[in-house]
Amino acid sequence: MIEPAILLPYLAFCIVMSGTPGPNNTMALTSGVRVGLWRSMPLVAGIALGVALQLLAIGLGLGAIFDAVPALHDVLRICGSVYLLWLAIKIARSGPVRPAAEDRPPVGFAGAAAFQWVNPKAWAITTSAAAAYLPAADYLANVGVAAVIMALVAIPCVSAWAACGTVLRRFLVQPGYARAFNITAALLLVAAIGPILFGTRAA
Question: What is the sign of the dihedral through the CA atoms of 79, 81, 82 and 83?
Fold first, then answer.
């Protein structure tokens, strides 16, 4: 099992990386605005599960495959960029909040989980965690524990962004405020495309 001397720094790492701005938290914020906190929880759970599974895969050897086939990095960059651009357009074109309408979150459980495989921040989190916080002793058990911890930490951290979006709902029934928020959220997602296309390799 992960020793306390490593566990506490790892917890701090997970909190900081899960709670700071990025594509996941922008999606959670937007979802909180559109459908509220409770209906955003499938998205939150999908993010947590996706990152945890990614850490498991890297810990079990996926990183070696990416090192052996560098072209896979380019495939992920392109897929991630296209997805974020599509999502940004979708958010920018959405109207004001309609409390009585059957609104939908920008991404559901499966989409949020799948997105982690093309999310550069998720790759940075999981590869750093595998490299820095997994002791060689009882390695397989430690990979599993680390993945569970990362998922459990991600849930409240990402939920906090959805909760912030829920608070904003009351203001975003007004078209002017809603338009400003939607465009800002879309631009944040577009800005995330830069590190994908022109940054260093994520894995």
Answer: positive
